[in-house]
Amino acid sequence: MAITVKDVAKKAGVATSTVSRVINDHPSISETTKKKVRKVMDDLGYVPNMTARNLGKRTSNAVGVILPPLDSKERLGNPFYLEIMEAINDEARLYDMTTAIATAKSFELLLENVKRMHLQKQVDGFILVYSDSADPVIEYLYENQIPFTLIGQPYQHENNIVYVDNDNQLLGKQATEFLIQNGHKNILFVTNTTHESLYFERYFGYQKALMLNQFPPFPSVVLEKPEDYLTFNDTLAKTNATALVVIDDIFALRTMQLAEMYGYSIPDDLSVVSFNNSIFSTLTHPYLTSIDIDISELGRMAMQKLREIIHDELSSGVRMVIPHKLIKRETVIPLAE
Q1: What is the pLDDT of residue 324?
Q2: Gene3D superfamilies given for it (predicted)?
């Protein structure tokens, strides 16, 4: 039989409201009474109901993790989101906090979900795990002064937003430089998104590496619509491409399959470098050369900084940069002279 507040109150010789105030550490209760009630709670093995406690404190001890609209199979299956949620959840557990997920198939519905979670006080703050130029959610959070952190680089208010990110421009530059070091100069940047911050940064880095080596960068190869896939073979032929930098691991596998369908062999005809170092990088042969962005640390730091904001320990904008490293595998070989 579960021990209740009434049981504690009866044994301690106080009112149930007093027990509730002790649970919430209310200043109106003396330290002597608090010690007495807490000893009874320990003796009886009473565990406070955190939901009831948080309602009394007007807090939820929960954070909302906001995912981007999951409007494609690549996004639905992208292990980045699962890994980042696991890291956030592990860190939240250290603070006796829980996590709730906000997701939808469109930004409009996503904003509705976030508003509902905030207005119903389901969470104390939010972590955005993406940065998208079309996103109305971040502006809602910013304008309403709702505690939040961002994984990624904001498009505006950079000096006022707390965000955790890799140096994505450097990632794009180093991925491209690795291919250049292996003798490649006709290198394409392939992506399935053109409105996320990491796309712009990684593509800028790609351009920078080629220009610094006096090679011409190409326009990014965008494979978003079915008709884009039909022209991919023509693009490879026209550019005489020998290597690809692809936006992330899961899309790199799709791109490699497409290239092989058109008769290209990986890595003999096309070398490939990608990002995230996810589980997909070693699921099929050849194993994918990928840049590890330390997803766990991104999630951990975002949660840590959000907790500081919620407890008024951090107010102004802060940028946290998480280190990365290139994992060499089988999809890059030196270009034969």
Answers
A1: 97
A2: 3.40.50.2300, lambda repressor-like DNA-binding domains
Q: Pairing state of beta strands 271-275 and 243-246?
A: parallel
In a domain, 299, yes or no: yes
Longest dimension (CA), the chain: 89
Same domain, 231 and 86: no
Low-confidence ranges of the chain (pLDDT < 70): 1, 48-60, 74, 337
The pLDDT of residue 1 is: 61
Backbone angles phi, psi at 301, to 5 degrees: -70, -35
Q: Is the separation of the CB atoms in 306 and 241 below 8 Å?
A: no
Residue 86 lies in a domain: yes
Residue 24 lies in a domain: no
Residue with tokens 């369908």: 261
Are 238 and 145 part of one and the same domain? no
Model confidence pLDDT, tens digit, residues 235-281: 999 999 999 999 999 999 999 999 999 999 999 999 999 999 999 99
Cβ contact 105:71 at 8 Å: yes
**Domain containing residue 229:** 168-293
Domains in the chain: how many in total?
2
* The predicted structure's pLDDT at residue 56: 46
